Fold:
Amino acid sequence: VPPTGLLVGILGGMGPAATADFYEKLIKATPARTDQEHLRVVMWADPTVPDRTEALKDAGADLIAVPCNTAHAFVPRIELQVGVRIIHMIEETARHIDAMSPPVDRVALLATTGTVKAGLYQDWLSRTGKKVLLPTAPEQAEVSRIIGEVKAGRVVTELRHRIAEIAETLVARGAQVVVAGCTEIPLVLRPEDVSVPVADPSQILAEAVVAEAGGTLIPQR
Amino acid sequence: VPPTGLLVGILGGMGPAATADFYEKLIKATPARTDQEHLRVVMWADPTVPDRTEALKDAGADLIAVPCNTAHAFVPRIELQVGVRIIHMIEETARHIDAMSPPVDRVALLATTGTVKAGLYQDWLSRTGKKVLLPTAPEQAEVSRIIGEVKAGRVVTELRHRIAEIAETLVARGAQVVVAGCTEIPLVLRPEDVSVPVADPSQILAEAVVAEAGGTLIPQR
Structure:
C-alpha cells in the first residue's frame, strides 16, 4: 500500500454544474505533476438529498468542501454534528478580500436571495470592517433569474452581458471588488467584463483545500 | 423523502483532470431544467488507490462509470466481482462508431500505449468489421508524451497542434474517424483541428449513463 494523503470530501450537487466547476478548479489548483500527486477525493453530489455529510464521514473524509454559498448557513451546525472539519468558503473569501492589495473596504455581493438574506457575507466581511453593497431589488431578481438560467444549462451571451452590467452598477456605487457569491455566478460572469477584481469563492475554496491538504500531498517519487 | 433516481457511481482519478472533464460532460448531457432533475452521483477519485469500486457499491451505486480507457482492461472482471453494472466505455464507443452516418470502416486510435497494447478498441471495433489504424512507434511515443503533459496540467498550443498533426497523418492513411481513446486526449485535441469526425469516448460514456439512468430522472414538479 503506497502512502496516501488526506481524503477530501466534496459535498456537491447544489448545483451540479457549479460542483463540476469547483472540482475542475480543485484539480487545477493542485501543484501535481503526476496523477498520483493529486488529492484523494470522494464526492457526493445528490441534488435530491443535499446533506450527505454523514456519507462523506463514513467514507473516511478528513476534511470537507461544500461548493455552495447558500448551504453555508448550515455549515457550522453540520461541522459540529459530524465532527469533520468543513473548510468555510465564506470565511476564506472574507480573509482573501481582507488580504487584497491595494486594500478594499466596499464589496459588491452577487448571490442568491437566500445567501443575501442569510447575511453570511455581511457578517464575515464586517468583521474586518468591510461594507457590503447589494443589488437593488429589481437587480437582485435578475441575479436570481440568471442563476436559474445557469442551473438550467443556459449560459448565453445575453446573460453574460446582463450580469456584468449589474456588477458595474455596483462598481459605480463604489464597490472595489465584486464577490461572485453563488457558485453558478463564475460560470457566467467573466472577470474581464468587470472593471474591478472579481473574487471567486469557488476558486478560493479550491485553493484553501489544496493549502490545507497540501502538506500531505504525495511527493513525486 | 422525495422520490430519487438511480445513484451513479464514478470511479475517477485516472487522471483527475479527465475525471473532472467527464463529470462536466455528464452534467451537460443531462436534460435537466432544475438542480433536482440532475443525476445523483457519488464519485471516488483516488489516484493513489484507483480501484474503489467496492466503496461505490457500499455507497449504493446502481451503476458505475469509469472514465479511463486504460482501466477498461479490468472492467469485466471488476463488474463480475462487485456485482454492479459498469457501463463499458469502449463497447459504447464501438457501438457509436458502428452507427455513424455515413458508415466508416477505418478508425484511427489515439490512446495510451497500455490501451493500444491491451487491444481493447481493436477487439471491440473488429466485431463490426472495422479496421484500426495506429500511430507509428515514434508518433505513439509522442501521443504518450502529450498525455503526460495534459496530466501535468500543461495544455498548450504546441500540444494542440502536434496531436492534431498526428491525427491527420492517420487520416492521410485512410482513417475516417479518430477515436480520442484516452480521456486526456479530448482536453487537448479539438475536433475543429481534425478533418474527419472525432469520437470522444468520455462524451459517449456520459451520454450512455444519462440514457441508462435517464428513465429514472426525476420529472419536473
In short: The first strand of chain A starts at residue 7 and ends at 12. Residues 216-221 of chain A have pLDDT under 50 and may be disordered. The beta strands of chain A are 7-12, 40-45, 63-65, 85-87, 106-110, 131-133, 177-180, 198-199. DSSP finds nine helices and eight strands in chain A.
